[in-house]
Amino acid sequence: MVGMAATDPRSVPTLVVTVSDRSASGSRPDRSGPRLVELLTQAGHRVDGPLVIPDGADSVAAALREAVAEGYRLVVTTGGTGVGPRDYTPEGTRQVLTRELDGVAEQLRREGAAHTPMAAISRGTAGVIDPAEGTGGGTLVVNLPGSVRAVEQNLPALLPLVPHLLVQLDTGDHG
Description:
The protein is an alpha/beta fold. It has helices at 2-7, 21-25, 32-42, 57-69, 89-96, 102-113, 148-158, 162-171; strands spanning 13-19, 46-53, 74-78, 99-100, 126-129, 139-144. It has a six-stranded mixed sheet with strand order 2-1-3-6-5-4, sandwiched between helices. α3 (32-42) runs parallel beside α7 (148-158), α4 crosses α5 (89-96) and α6 packs across α7 (148-158).
């Protein structure tokens, strides 16, 4: 049964994308991407990455399009969600989303706010990229802030939602 497979994280191709000019240029090590890979792997996901790309809406949109073309069902980004001059991860994500999941992004900000008031600054979004007609499934995309602490605080709020969201994408079942 297609929908049931989505509830098993080992069956969900997952990609982590780090969005950072400094990490992409090699001038700063990527810390949040590897930690995100580690935590998703510990949760049982089959994870690739981190793919490290420069900041900017176009680079994010291109990476997400490629991830969908390669068959990833879950893409979690880290970085580029603040208000810095090149922080355009949400804008790049919105270029390719079919539908936003405002409640997921709000939940992640609430979880972050339980730890720091700076969580209110995160502009991260979440949503779905629907597949081409007749190809089934879809891709869930979630933007997390670009710090190890934010990844560690937000992922526990996200993980319980993923199986249900993927079942809905596969089957339309609201079970």
